[in-house]
């Protein structure tokens, strides 16, 4: 009977360590989730100064001045996708499409 409290104390400490590890793991997962949620919005903000109607206008003007061809067609498709993303509140996708459109206007 004298060993039972000692065994019980050992199990309690082990359970406390496991709980502490789980708490830390959940904290790391929460931080990673926030980082992944914020990253696309930050990318859109920094790509060409952000996804805004003013930046879309600038890109559209540049595309209008392009000679007809595959590059112009690709840029027009990217602008359309950027506008759709902007209207749906997908700022990360909008910034990515706007960036691709601008690259197409530069002949890249």
What is shown here, in short?
The protein is mainly alpha-helical and 108 residues long. It has helices spanning 3-46, 53-64, 70-87, 91-105. It starts with a helix and ends with a helix.
Walk me through this protein's architecture.
The chain has 108 residues and is mostly helical. It contains four helices and no strands. Helix 1 crosses helix 4 and helix 2 (53-64) packs parallel to helix 4 (91-105).
List the helices and strands and how they pair.
Layout: H1 3-46, H2 53-64, H3 70-87, H4 91-105
Helix pairs in contact: 1-4, 2-3, 2-4, 3-4
Q: Whole-number radius of gyration?
A: 26 Å
Largest sheet: none
Distance between the termini: 80 Å
Strand coverage percent: under 5%
**Estimated structural class:** mainly alpha
Rough shape?
rod-shaped
Q: What do the pLDDT scores average to?
A: 78
Count of individual helical segments:
4
Q: Could you list the spans in which at least 5 consecutive residues all have pLDDT below 50?
A: 44-48
Order of helices and strands: HHHH
Total beta strand runs = 0
Q: How much helix, percentage-wise, in residues?
A: over 70%
């Amino acid at each position: 009977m004298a060993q039972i409290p000692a065994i019980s104390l050992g199990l309690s400490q082990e359970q406390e360590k496991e709980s502490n590890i789980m708490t830390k793991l959940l904290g790391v997962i929460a931080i990673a989730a926030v980082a992944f949620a914020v990253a696309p919005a930050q990318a859109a903000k920094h790509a060409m100064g952000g996804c805004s109607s003013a930046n879309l206008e600038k890109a559209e003007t540049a595309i209008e001045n392009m000679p007809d061809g595959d590059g112009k067609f690709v840029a027009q498709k990217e602008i359309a996708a950027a506008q759709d993303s902007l209207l749906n509140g997908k700022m990360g996708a909008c910034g990515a499409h706007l960036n691709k459109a601008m690259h197409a206007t530069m002949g890249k």
